[in-house]
Amino acid sequence: MYRFTGICWSRRRRRHVILIAACCSLENESPRLRMQSMCHCCEWIRHHFGHLSAEYLSQLDQMGGDITKQNVPVLFPTSLYRHIDDAEFEDKVRFLNETIYQIIKLFDGNMKSVIWDKKNMDDFLNILDRQFENLNSCVSPAMKPERRLKRYFRKLNRRVLRKMNYSAEAWELIRKETKRHLQRLDILAGQMY
Fold first, then answer.
1. Per the record's keyword annotation, is Signal included, yes or no (predicted)?
2. Which of 62, 91, 117, 152 lies 20 to 30 Å (CA to CA) from residue 27?
3. Alpha carbon of 179 to those of 77, 86, 87, 134: distances in Å?
């Protein structure tokens, strides 16, 4: 069973730094293994999140043409990002995880009209899914997702995709908004250390 654990110690610049770890560990494991497991999620976010983020942002750019300049009819949730900037480490991990999950759900819609490069689109979704799976292992299943974030993505689905009948133009707006989210998540993850 997975659960949140406490504090992870790391040596950085000749001093000990406490990293609040929203990391998972298995129950009934030795203290040494628990410490290694706790630090695993912290280390993964520090060393691998940015790499995968760069990969899926590149795929997102390559799968279509230039990003549309048209405005998205749903306001970007800037206040949510400002709020999460001041949150605890584990809340930030949960936010990263939930946002990526909502993006994956968004791309699970009717994509018949999309004219993007299929291989790049598949690569994008596979990398995004890999990022989600790694983050998901760091999040307690007992934690509830951010309601405002879920509501925002439902509005995006309803007011862009459904209202525009899943047209190529609608998907371009979704791609634009997705890029904006993924860039903000990359900044958020970079600020966690």
1. yes
2. 91
3. 14, 23, 23, 20
Cβ atoms of residues 37 and 23 within 8 Å: yes
Contact 172, 64 (CB under 8 A): yes
Class of domain 47-191: mainly alpha
Could you list the pLDDT tens digit for every one of the 193 residues in the chain? 333 333 333 333 222 233 333 333 333 444 444 344 445 667 778 888 899 999 999 999 999 888 899 999 999 999 999 999 999 888 898 999 999 999 999 999 889 999 999 999 999 999 999 999 988 888 877 667 689 999 999 999 999 999 999 999 999 999 999 999 999 999 999 988 7
CA–CA gap between residue 185 and residue 99 (Å, rounded): 8
Burial class of residue 138 (count of CB atoms within 10 Å of its CB; 0-12, 13-18, 19+) = buried
- Could you tell me the residue ranges of all domains in the chain? 47-191
- pTM of the model as a whole: 0.78
